[in-house]
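Pasting two entries for a bug report.
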Amino acid sequence: MEEDIKIMEKAAIAAGNVIMKYYREGKQVTNSAEVRNKGANNPLTKADLEADSLLNKMLLDTRPEYGWLSEETTDNPTRMDKKRVWVVDPIDGTKEFIIGLPQFAVSIGLIEDGKPIAACVHNPATKETFLAVLGSGSSLNGQPIKTTPRSQLTGSTCLASRSETKRGDWDGFKSEFAITTMGSIAYKLALVAAGRYDISFTLTPKNEWDFCAGALLVTEAGGKITHKDGEECIYNKKNPLVRSLLASNGTLHPSLLQRLKDTPYGPDRHGPTCTMKEEIK
């Protein structure tokens, strides 16, 4: 695992350098980023594809026996037969990247038999690199990190999706939590792992590549990750889409599950999952 985590970190930083060629803090990306849509409210840029291609080469060239699951690569069903699988999102938070918000990240998870064993979330705009190895803890830029010690759910600091907040999905929680809106779910999970926030959750569909790496960061920092029904996350499934995701500092998790027990799921606003380049119009 020591060698694999070094490979992941090197690849994430290299991909981040590619992405930063197009990023303009506080400003919309230029036409050179070639922004397009691959589905409703689901943008794609040249930076996504270039970063994905680089990650694919760096990770699979060094570990050709591993499987591959990425948001921007044609899904190959042979990954289902692999013991270990790279689960990648070259830019988690593309919408934020496009408008110049530093709320996006390169997300790389390594799965073994359906469970994450190593993770890297790298935000090139903030120069933060979060790493985790199963059983060895989580770190930020080489320093150990831990989740918060908070035990009271009401008043907890909570990271919420920017788009979900705009739609009004979080209106019912504003009196209970100290809510901060944030783009990338991978980055949100990393910040919970780092103890900057107590909780984060979503009741709208997400894919494994969105949260795989961030989930290990949280659990290795002392936190907890489940679905709304309390079930543990299982990875490298045939269909990588999940209906909900809850992250907490660990102590708050039973209370968070109880609070959301009767809260309805949000609708899937993206439509069918698209992971194939040839489907992009």
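Entry 2 (this is the one that rendered wrong in the viewer):
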Amino acid sequence: MKKILVSQPRPTSDKSPYFDIAKKYEVDIVFRPFIKVEGLTPKEFRQQRIAITDYTAVVFTAKTAIDHFFTLCEGLRIAIPETMKYFCTTESIALYLQKYIVYRKRKIFFGSTGKLDDLSSSFTKHSGEKFLVPCSDVHNDDVTKVLDKVKVDYTKAVMYRTVSNDFTPEEKFDYDMLLFFSPSGINSLMKNFPNFDQGNIEIGAFGVATAKAVTDAGLELSFQAPTPEAPSMTAALELYLKKTQK
């Protein structure tokens, strides 16, 4: 085992466990996403027939959603009123709004655990609002389940999409292990390499859906996270390296 591809962006902190693993087990870890996010154009968004100004509140579950919401509003030449309310899953996401608005002048609500359930009481208190939920073309229904439970008026608006981050002919694909974090990553692998021959390449997957995508593609899965012994991908990777290097 000499070279491992992690299909995610390079960590912003040098304290990432990946760097410790690379040093400890003398392996080269390369960060190279198989997928990327791109925003819809104003023309594409208009096809959904959603008028953003009809809504009085926005629900954000990620900083990516904030970026694409305000970028799209700018492209559509929409001025967001100061009365707009913002509901965010975490304080970190809420504070990211400062990139686009004067934070102290807005009504902003956020949860403490990262789960939308934290905001149930806030949704109920503001049940008279019309909520807009910016999302990707590929998303889960966790948000809508909570909004359905509190019985508020909401609309999902696709504002960005996940696409394959294609490899160039010049890029070497000489990895001993590939780590994936979503089914989209597997789809991108097969799109880039239609005749992909796994050979001796090990594959690790994070999440049940990702693991299923690996086997559905006819590939062999070496290990999966999270598990009770390995709650993170880095923990699972280290366990696997420790076992195989013996």
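Dev reply: Rendering is fixed now. As a check, the viewer should reflect this: The two ends are 12 Å apart (CA to CA).
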